[in-house]
């Protein structure tokens, strides 16, 4: 196990910041239900006695961030004073402890705000571990022996479909050729699709310009937001189909706008536009509803994609068991860190479902590239039908931003999970005292927080 020496690794500080970007001003990130999101995150920094740091975040929108920040603070006691090496040596045990505190469990368990907070903390720990090993996270994962990797997963609630022993065997079966696949990734990158062309708040002119831009950049897969008005969706999607031509791929995303029957009817109307997948057609909790939609849309060649709001590995298990998802969209900041995400990848592999991670949010592109790289090298061994979502937002705020060239994610090279913010970003966008927020309040662009907001309590 690549567990670092314990010396100086006692965690002496955990800081959490509310960081928000005013994306609603340009309609960036908008969809049927999140019509004016300000892309945000709860940003965690952990510091060890010897000064090593781990940076992690969970994505949120606007005011939701303050609630997550409070939840992170409520979990500090699980981290402070612990030695990071001890956490890594029994990572599954630590995971069970932080997700099952008897006084906190009632507000979960393993779902919602408290799980977002867990994700931010777990992400900072994986970042720290990779930095201590001087590797990007994906290499840390790829270089672990199957037993070591699997030892980080809590298998409670999923052993009916995947046991620890089976998981180890799946990884061992793929050991052959792993180094060749690593080389391939380093030389060729991993295919991306773009959502940037189709935010619901964008004008027709913007959509056209962006389609042209992303075609020039080499993209072959385009995702467009739908779900508010059928005629309008048909019109917009027809235009996008015209811009991208018949040989490129079109996906649509309803962000949970519909009931089950409505989703089926709506998508049958859009089907002539040749749609690869419908994403989040209905409630993210409706496993059987997704299975019904999947079945109804199969004859039209439309798959169902979901996962960005899937609460935990148990829900993923049921989506996979029921045939409710044909594209599994794990989110790096919603479920309990890499520990839980690995369980989902392993189950998806067993059910022969493609993982195409969700990345529409702050820092998500930065993280999911590591996960999908690991998947190709160590588990699925294929990129067939798989893509990483790419949204071109907030990358300039990161110390080690995602690099996409010719519609491919290039291999992250620096140690860590790529989510460290630049100091000037924190100075400007920490809410509500960052200099940019103060300017926007002064200029009346946004109202300052009122006394119902936690920032003022
Ligand atoms: C609110 C977010 O922008 C959401 O619309 C992202 C999303 O659904 C996606 O990227 O997919
Ligand atoms: Mg989506």
TrEMBL record:
One of its GO terms (biological process) is amino acid catabolic process. Pfam families: MR_MLE_C (PF13378), MR_MLE_N (PF02746). InterPro entries: Enolase-like_C_sf, Enolase-like_N, Enolase_C-like, L-fuconate_dehydratase, Mandel_Rmase/mucon_lact_enz_CS, Mandelate_racemase_C, Mandelate_racemase_N_dom, RHMD-like. Residues 204-300 form the Mandelate racemase/muconate lactonizing enzyme C-terminal domain. The keyword Lyase applies. GO terms for molecular function: L-fuconate dehydratase activity; magnesium ion binding. Its EC number is 4.2.1.68. Keywords: Lyase, Magnesium, Metal-binding. Its cofactor is Mg(2+). It catalyses: L-fuconate = 2-dehydro-3-deoxy-L-fuconate + H2O. The keyword Metal-binding applies. Belongs to the mandelate racemase/muconate lactonizing enzyme family. ENOSF1 subfamily. This is Mitochondrial enolase superfamily member 1.
């Amino acid at each position: 196990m690549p567990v670092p020496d314990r010396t100086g690794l006692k965690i002496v500080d955990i800081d959490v910041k509310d960081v928000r970007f005013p994306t609603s001003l340009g309609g960036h990130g908008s969809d049927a239900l999140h019509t004016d999101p300000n892309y945000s995150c709860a940003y965690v920094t952990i510091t060890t006695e010897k000064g090593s740091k781990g940076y992690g975040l969970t994505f949120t929108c606007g005011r939701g961030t303050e609630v997550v920040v409070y939840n992170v603070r409520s979990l500090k006691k699980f981290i402070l004073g612990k030695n990071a090496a001890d956490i890594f040596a029994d990572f599954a045990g630590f995971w069970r402890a932080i997700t099952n505190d008897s006084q906190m469990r009632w507000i979960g368990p393993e779902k919602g705000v408290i799980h977002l907070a867990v994700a931010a903390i777990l992400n900072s720990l994986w970042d720290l571990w990779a930095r201590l090993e001087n590797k990007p996270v994906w290499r840390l994962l790829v270089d672990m022996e199957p037993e070591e990797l699997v030892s980080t997963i809590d298998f409670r609630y999923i052993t009916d479909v995947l046991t620890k022993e089976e998981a180890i065997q799946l990884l061992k079966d793929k050991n052959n050729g792993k180094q060749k696949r690593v080389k391939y990734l380093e030389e060729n990158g991993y295919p991306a699709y773009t959502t940037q062309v189709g935010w619901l708040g964008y004008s027709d002119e913007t959509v056209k310009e962006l389609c042209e831009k992303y075609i020039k950049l080499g993209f072959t897969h385009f995702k467009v937001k739908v779900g508010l008005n059928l005629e309008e969706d048909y019109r917009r999607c027809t235009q996008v189909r015209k811009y991208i031509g018949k040989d490129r791929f079109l996906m649509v995303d309803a962000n949970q706008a519909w009931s089950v029957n409505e989703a089926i009817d709506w998508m049958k109307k859009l089907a002539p536009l040749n749609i690869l997948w419908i994403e989040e057609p209905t409630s993210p909790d409706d496993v059987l509803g997704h299975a019904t939609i999947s079945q109804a849309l199969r004859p039209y060649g439309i798959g169902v994609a979901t996962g960005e709001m899937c609460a935990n590995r148990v829900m993923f298990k049921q989506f996979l068991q029921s045939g409710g998802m044909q594209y599994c969209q794990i989110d790096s900041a919603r479920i309990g860190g890499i520990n839980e995400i690995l369980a989902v990848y392993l189950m998806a592999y067993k059910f022969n479902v493609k993982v195409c991670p969700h990345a529409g949010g702050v820092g998500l592109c930065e993280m999911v590239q590591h996960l999908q790289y690991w998947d190709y090298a160590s588990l699925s061994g294929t990129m067939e039908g798989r893509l990483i979502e790419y949204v071109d937002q907030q990358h300039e705020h990161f110390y080690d931003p995602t690099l996409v060239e010719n519609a491919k994610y290039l291999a992250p090279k620096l140690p860590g999970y790529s989510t460290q913010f630049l100091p000037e970003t924190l100075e400007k966008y920490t809410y509500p005292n960052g200099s940019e927020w103060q300017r926007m309040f002064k200029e009346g662009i946004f109202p300052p927080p009122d006394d119902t907001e936690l920032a003022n309590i």
